[in-house]
Input
Amino acid sequence: MSVDLSINPLRKGLIRERAAEPCIFVIFGGTGDLSRRKLLPALYHLHLSNLLPRGFAIVGYASSEMDDSGYREMAHQAISKSPTHVPTEGKTWDQFAESLYYVKRSEDTEHSLDGLKQRVNDLDAAIGTEGNCLFYLAIPPFRFAETAEGLGEVSLAGNNNTRGWRKLVVEKPLGEDLESAKALNRDMQRFFDEEQIYRIDHYLGKETVQNILVFRFANEFVEPLLNAEHVDNIQITVAETLGLEGRGGYYDSSGALRDIVQNHMLQMLSLICMNRPHSLDAGAVRDAKIELFRSIHPVEQSKVGDIALRGQYTSGSISGEDVPAYTQEKDVAPNSTTETFAVLKLFIDNPRWKGVPIYLRTGKRLAKRVTEIGITLKKPTEMFPRAGGSGQNVLALNIQPDEGISMRFDAKVPGLAYQVQPVRMDFKYGTAFATSVPEAYERLILDAILGDQSLFPRADATEATWAICDPILKAWLANQVPLYTYKPGSWGPREAMEFIERDGRRWRRL
Output
């Protein structure tokens, strides 16, 4: 497939060998925050890169009073405010705007999807989408099951008699615990086959996360090191300087374990620790992941305090700005015990990783915004006098904000004596390839249209990660372990430092 990149030459990372098939892209919650901030800009960027099919329509579906013209104006305003500052005028924009349509959700619950079905059928006939339709649920998770059921009842979910394909895309959180995750999977699978369901985890669309498999399996010097013989420990950190940003109601019923650990962090852990899949086929990669999740040593609720720690930020200042305590945030219960900081220590029960601790750390209002996977190798035999540092080599995959890979190794200090000290070698995407990195949603949306499920967790994987987190969650909800506090701008509670120091290790300096 030859793709014309003259419109947007900096987005070369999303070239595909096969063209996307015509389809209708329906956004439930089409006027909401996710649609305005992420989905519509991502779709426009794909349009700029000439990666959307010729027969393509976007249908916003929501409760707002609006028509097609109003929806196009809303989309124009949203995309114009996008951080990428792409041009939204002229012929290119006009072509994209012509593909935007809007359907107002009916207040008649019994027939609420009738208008959407009619519009989909009309557009299918008018622009030739061959019956292909993707439904993106940018709505609260408690409405996922009822929406899947509604689509099934009006014959939009697809069956053996349906022309074309139908796909369902859902955002996290996928359940609140193991039981609810299983129930949600059952409810969706009543009307959509597993092959039709795409569970979005936007971290899996980040360039460095995708590069983990390439880094491991395309470089002969990397993979032989990733095992218990050579690795001392692995640390995965997702740190944010921000607080709740108006999401108090959601976050107070979620917390760090549900919001970050169960999905983003365990997915990254699987990519860095799973065994080599027999191919890059989506099924093979997902099979390797589920094998890894099921190999993680089970956590007993009564022993959660030995392998997990939680914290909550107090009032203070960060970057010179006074910020309230978590319990003083809008829509947060004043006596809330929801964690804004979490640490886990996990072990994998297989020969490859036996005995290697994997530390997960995440929190809000921390000292720095950074996501990193740090792999610390075991100490080598000391042969030379040291000028400083621990003498341990580190491979670090920087997920955000500066995507890239770094390596720490020892080098001789200039001079006549043999003294060594650690130095760092960095690879950064922006400087190495002189091209912008596509947004995670661009890649994930395009993969969903193309039918590539490699980056989308399967039902059994979501249930397996909930099974890991469930005992911890239950112990925290029952207040079986302390809730420590920490100041904004720090790296979490003092007890989190003691947690890893008991093992004779330290958190990586980020």
